Amino acid sequence: MGVTVADIVARLGGECVGDAGLPIDRIATLEAATPSSIGFLANPRYRGQLASTQAGCVIVAPAFKGEAAARGTAIVTPDPYLYYARLSQWWVGRIRPATPRGVHPSAVVDAGAVLADSASIGPLACIGAGASIGAHTRIGARVVIADGCHVGERCIVHPGAVIGADGFGFAPDNGYWAKIEQLGGVRIGNDVEIGANTCIDRGALGDTVIEDGVKLDNLVQIGHNVHVGAHTAMAGCVGIAGSARIGAHCTLGGSANVLGHLELADHVHVSAATTITRSILVPGRYSGLFPFDDNAAWEKNAATLRQLHALRDRLRALEKKT
After folding, report:
1. 53 CB contacts (<8 Å, ≥6 apart)?
2. Does residue 246 surpass a pLDDT of 70?
């Protein structure tokens, strides 16, 4: 199933430097590449691997054209990472069988659900009454699309995801909890990808909304009535509490959390493991990590933090005396 560098350039563009007829049979990292592999240099941090890699061809930015040419064949492109992404899509189309359209025999689809003819419903998936699945969308194994939820076109829902479970709503009642029935649904736009075992809860009254182009990693939790703006991406184990509103083109690193009813403006980027406790209305990068340390040092620092309020009061008192 090999191709030549010339085949790749003809399909994806870029400038070929060196042997255009070089055969390529796999995509690999620079470190693991063989003479019949194509690799890519996207992060300058790995520049040192350019000289040592065994890759037959490397994808590089114009700034590294000379170094790449000195070692052999290269494809020069303004954005090597994007080029690699498009190469991977083309490569998969060549080596993997196309996803079959239609409903797997083991899936359960309610008679009231609406499925596009080009949609694919995987093994043991469950599609509820009134749900709708758009054109060219792929629903993976054991996915649940609950009653009244909508998934748009060209979406990918990976195995085990649950869309439309009840949101976490309870009212205190003399030491007990009274369930608040969740009467809304989930509306997912086009070109959305939802990772394995991710859960998107239905709204309490209105719908939970995931706009076009959103990418959610595995094990992401989206609470009821959350609104996620277009082309936002969330890494694994992110949690968004109910009624939060996340803007467009945002990114949230792994295990980041956003508390309920908060708002993030467009183009807000949250570092991994950060907890957002107030709304962010200005685009930018935000972090809330306390660096790890050996346990003894961490405990001393934690004890000092607990005394900050007392130290603040003492400082104010001293300032008043001066």
Report:
1. 30, 31, 33, 39, 71
2. yes
The tokens of 86 are what?
Answer: 């498009």
Instruction: State the amino acid at position 144 in one-letter form.
Output: V
User: b/e map of 223-241 (b: 16 or more CB within 10 Å)?
Assistant: bbbbbbbbbbbbbbbbbbb
Q: Annotated active-site positions, please? A: 224
Q: What is the percentage of the chain residues whose pLDDT exceeds 70?
A: 100
CATH code, 3-95: 3.40.1390.10
DSSP bridge pairs for 216: 194, 234
**Separation between Cα atoms, residue 127 and residue 256, nearest integer Å:** 30
Q: What is the residue extent of each domain of the chain?
A: 3-95, 102-286, 293-322
Give residue for tokens 């080029």: 83
Cα(251)–Cα(306) distance, rounded to whole angstroms? 32
Task: Name the superfamily (CATH) of residues 102-286.
Answer: Hexapeptide repeat proteins (2.160.10.10)
Among the listed residues 138, 141, 142, 140, the one whose alpha carbon sits nearest the alpha carbon of residue 154: 138
Q: What is the pLDDT of residue 179?
A: 98
pTM: 0.92
How many other C-beta atoms are found inside a 10 Å radius of the C-beta of residue 217? 19
Please write the tens of the pLDDT for every residue from 42-53: 999 999 999 999
